Every structure is written in structure tokens, then in C-alpha cells.
């Protein structure tokens, strides 16, 4: 199996999760009252685990494809059916919500909650995944202005396509990037500096992911056409101010995966 979890998962209904999360927050508040708000999140997790036998901590999730493997750790798994992510930060951000959604899609669980113990008042936020596992395989591949004869283009396209077919779409972009990097030779071969020039002067190096000599690649996840259109002029400036010959670009939209080649 490409994605596995050590625990036997049993998704909770919204009603079941609502009842259990109410009880959990009651315990969170009790622990926070005792510890205060200035400890690291791991201490609140461990204190809660002492109170709640239905709360499993640091649950590993394994993502595999051929020789690539990455392990994620869920902060907490509630009653084997919902994910709880604890934070000790000034405020919750879209990145925190995206991380929890990513974990929900990996596990096939639809219910989750962020709990931030650092502010004056404990903050909780429900994050529910509306996509089923089957939904994430509902996409089509298109090649728009794609030049498959460019060096590195075919391996890049093949590897990414196989990953999407194995894992599905909508997971975090850096997971796909790490896996593509692995299959194109590893970080030592793929992550390399490119000279940046401005007005005829070299002003520094920029580390890029290379599919071949002079050919870099980039993944995005724009759903709206506006996002894709705004990406192109900035990509062209990247080409203009480096010695890149081309950029291999794959946009992982919700229903459409688009491959494009941008040349200098």
C-alpha cells in the first residue's frame, strides 16, 4: 500500500467527533490551567495522554512509492478516528490548517481539530476534509505548450504522473517535490545553485531544482486561471535573470494536472 498508518483507523461521524471533541477540550482546559501557557506543545500532549486513554500520540503515517519513503507523525489520534494537532504559537495560520488537511487526506479521515494552547484563551478550530480518497484520483492530465524533447522533460513528467496515480492529488506540494527529486537523482544532483544576474552583474546564487543541465522544474497548485496566468511572467523573469534554458512547470489543480514548458 502506498500510504499506511500503524493504527487501525475507524473514521468518526461529525456527531461522534463533536461529542468527543467537547470532552477533549474540557481536558485541554484543565491541563492548560494547571501548566499555564508557556510550555512547548509536547508537554500538553503528554499531560493529556495521561488523562485520556483514547488519545494516541505521535502516530506515524508512512508514504511510499517504489524506493521513496517519507514518514509523517500525527500529533494525536482521537478514538482512532479523528486527528488533533496541537500548537503553541501566537496565532493559527493557513499553513497549520493546510497541514491538518494534508494529514486527513493521507489517512482518509474527515474530522480534525487544531488546538492552540499559547494564547491567553485556548483556541480550537475544526478542520474537516470534504474530499474523499476517491475524489483525489478524479483528475485529468493535459500538456499545454509542453516540449517532451527538452532534456529531463520526459523523466520529470513520467515520475510525477506515476506519483499522482499512486497517491492521488491534493497532498502537500513538498511531498511530490521531494519524491520527484529522489527519482531524478536525489538532492545532491537536483538541488543546485543558479547564478542570478542583474544589469550584467552577478548578484548571488539561487538554489533551484534541476531536471537536467540548464533545465529546472517547478510545481504549483493553482485552481484558478488567474493564479496560473500570474505565475508565467514571474517564471519568465526567473529565466531572464539566470542562465536557465527552460523551466518545466506542472500545475496540480484540483481536477486538472497541467504540464507546460517555459523557454528562455
Describe this structure in words.
- With 264 residues, this protein is of the alpha+beta class.
- The chain contains seven helices and twelve strands.
- The strands form two sheets. The protein has a six-stranded mixed sheet. A six-stranded mixed sheet has the order 7-12-11-10-9-8.
- β11 (246-252) and β12 (256-263) form a beta hairpin.
- α1 (14-35) packs across α2 and α4 (153-167) crosses α5 (173-183).
- The two termini are 41 Å apart.
How would you classify the helix and strand content by structural class? Answer: alpha+beta
Question: What is the approximate shape?
Answer: elongated
Q: Write the element-wise H/E pattern from the N-terminal end onward.
A: EHHEEEHEEEHHHEEEHEE
Number of helices: 7
* Number of strand segments: 12
Provide the β-strand percentage band: 25-35%
Helix content: 25-40%
Radius of gyration: 22 Å
Sheet with the most strands: spatial strand order: 1-2-3-4-5-6
Low-confidence stretches: none
**Largest sheet entry:** 6 strands, mixed
Gap between N and C termini, in Å? 41 Å
Summed over residues and divided by their number, the pLDDT gives a mean of: 96
Distinctive features:
elongated, 264 residues, 35% helix, alpha+beta
Quick recap of the structure?
This protein is α+β, with helices and mostly antiparallel strands.
Give the topology, please.
Blueprint: E1 3-5, H1 14-35, H2 41-51, E2 55-65, E3 68-78, E4 82-87, H3 94-107, E5 112-116, E6 123-126, E7 140-143, H4 153-167, H5 173-183, H6 187-190, E8 191-198, E9 201-212, E10 215-220, H7 225-240, E11 246-252, E12 256-263
Parallel strand pairs: 4-5, 7-12, 10-11
Antiparallel strand pairs: 1-2, 2-3, 3-4, 5-6, 8-9, 9-10, 11-12
Helix pairs in contact: 1-2, 4-5
Amino acid at each position: 500500500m502506498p500510504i499506511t498508518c500503524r493504527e487501525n483507523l475507524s473514521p468518526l461521524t461529525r456527531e461522534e467527533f463533536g461529542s468527543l471533541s467537547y470532552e477533549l477540550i474540557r481536558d485541554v482546559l484543565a491541563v492548560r490551567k494547571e501548566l499555564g501557557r508557556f510550555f512547548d506543545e509536547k508537554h500538553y500532549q503528554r499531560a493529556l495522554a495521561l488523562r485520556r486513554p483514547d488519545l494516541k500520540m505521535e502516530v506515524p503515517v508512512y508514504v511510499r512509492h517504489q524506493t521513496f519513503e517519507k514518514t509523517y507523525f500525527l500529533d494525536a489520534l482521537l478514538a482512532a478516528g479523528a486527528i488533533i494537532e496541537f500548537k503553541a504559537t501566537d496565532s493559527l495560520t493557513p499553513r497549520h490548517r493546510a497541514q491538518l488537511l494534508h494529514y486527513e487526506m493521507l489517512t482518509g479521515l474527515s474530522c480534525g481539530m487544531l488546538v492552540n494552547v499559547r494564547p491567553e484563551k485556548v483556541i480550537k478550530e475544526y478542520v474537516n476534509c470534504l474530499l474523499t480518497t476517491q475524489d483525489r484520483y478524479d483528475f485529468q492530465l493535459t500538456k499545454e505548450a509542453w516540449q517532451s524533447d527538452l532534456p529531463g522533460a520526459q523523466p520529470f513528467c513520467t515520475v510525477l504522473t506515476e506519483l499522482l496515480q499512486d497517491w492521488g492529488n491534493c497532498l502537500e506540494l513538498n511531498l511530490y517535490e521531494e519524491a520527484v527529486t529522489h527519482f531524478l537523482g536525489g538532492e545532491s544532483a537536483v538541488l543546485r545553485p543558479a547564478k542570478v544576474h542583474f544589469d550584467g552583474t552577478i548578484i548571488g546564487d539561487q538554489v533551484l531544482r534541476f531536471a537536467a543541465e540548464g533545465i529546472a522544474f517547478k510545481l504549483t497548485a493553482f485552481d484558478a486561471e488567474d493564479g496560473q496566468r500570474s505565475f508565467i511572467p514571474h517564471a519568465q523573469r526567473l529565466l531572464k535573470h539566470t542562465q536557465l534554458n527552460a523551466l518545466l512547470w506542472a500545475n496540480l489543480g484540483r481536477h486538472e494536472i497541467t504540464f507546460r514548458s517555459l523557454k528562455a
